[in-house]
Amino acid sequence: METGLKGKKVIVTGGGSGIGRSAVLAFAAEGASVLVADINGDGARSAAEEARAAGVAAQAVVGDLSAPEVVAEVVRTAVEELGGVDVLVNNAGIMDDMSATADVGDEMWERLIRVNLTAPFLLTRAVLPIMKEQGSGSVVFTASEASLRGGASGTAYTVSKHGVMGLVKSTAVMYRDHGIRVNAVAPGGTATNIAVGTPTSVDGPTALGRYANGIGRIAAAEELAAAIVFLASDAASNVNGAILPVDNGWSAV
User: Fold this and answer.
1) Are 25 and 51 in contact (CB under 8 A)?
2) In whole angstroms, how large is the CA radius of gyration of the chain?
3) Contacts of 250 (CB under 8 A, 6+ apart)
4) Pairing of the two strands 87-90 and 137-142
5) Which of 141, 157, 175, 250 is catalytic?
6) Is the pTM of this model over 0.85?
7) In angstroms, rounded to a whole number, what is the distance separating the alpha carbons of residues 250 and 73?
8) What SUPFAM superfamilies does the annotation carry (predicted)?
9) Residue 234 and residue 222: Cα distance in Å, rounded?
10) What average pLDDT does range 44-72 have in this prediction?
11) Inter-axis angle of helices 119-134 and 155-175, nearest 10
């Protein structure tokens, strides 16, 4: 089935490495123009350059996406340099240190919620009027196995990713009559460079360790990118409000 992505304009956050970078290159291979947004300038510029080498237009915007001015720059650049926004991939995120609830500090809590939930909310809110006006659009989030269960990560990360799941479902319902689809992939163990902090106590890691046997094999970033491209594409034209586990069956254990 045709993906319908050729000529589309795509924003990928966290596109400088890992799943995001693989998604950038997968969209470029489909003929889509790509804006790479990342806090890592070298990674963002390198991914954009590689996308251009594949024959598509690509831009890089560097900054913290939880800052409204950076969100505004991303959207402005997509509109002015690429010609619009057809697809938004909210992929950027950070991990916690696996802390249990009583051990989560204010700084960690606020940072995880700000980066993993507030930032994709701000960017989604910013692109929805564009998609609504054109009568079409697709938003794909990188959720997590931690969106589906309580035993996959620390409290702060788990809560942030459960929030992402709520944002996906609410937005899908609110905007489906405008031709806008909103979905998410839920990765299990994936080979990326996302860092896990040093645990502050034994409670979190000790409890989580009991469930580690269900993880299965570690996925390559390209496997997640393929699922993201599918959800963004015409091949998933009637898929809306879905959280797609890409976890080798971990969610089924």
Assistant:
1) yes
2) 17
3) 145, 188, 189, 214, 215, 216
4) parallel
5) 157
6) yes
7) 38
8) NAD(P)-binding Rossmann-fold domains
9) 20
10) 97
11) 10
Backbone CA torsion sign across 51, 94, 227, 238: negative
Nearest to 1 by CA among 239, 248, 241: 239
d(CA 20, CA 90): 9
Tell me the domains of the chain and their CATH numbers.
Answer: 9-252 (3.40.50.720)
Which residues neighbour 71 within 8 Å (Cβ) at sequence distance 6 or greater? 65, 119, 122, 123, 126
* Cα–Cα dist 199/208, whole Å: 12
- Give yes or no for a contact between 38 and 20, defined as CB atoms under 8 angstroms apart: yes
Task: Quickly tell me which residue has 């992505």 as its tokens.
Answer: 5
Question: One-letter amino acid identity for 226?
Answer: A
Helices marked H in 87-178: 106-113, 119-134, 155-175
CA 136 to mean position of chain CA atoms: 20
Sign (positive or negative) of CA dihedral 208, 219, 148, 106: positive
**Rounded Cα–Cα distance for residues 247 and 214 (Å):** 10
Tokens 């496997």 identify what position?
A: 223
- Structural contact between residues 241 and 172, judged by C-beta atoms closer than 8 angstroms: yes
pLDDT digits (tens, 9 = 90+) for 151-208: 888 999 999 999 999 999 999 999 999 999 999 999 986 666 655 555 556 555 655 5
Is 157 a known active-site residue? yes
Q: What are phi and psi of 211, to 5 degrees?
A: -110, 5
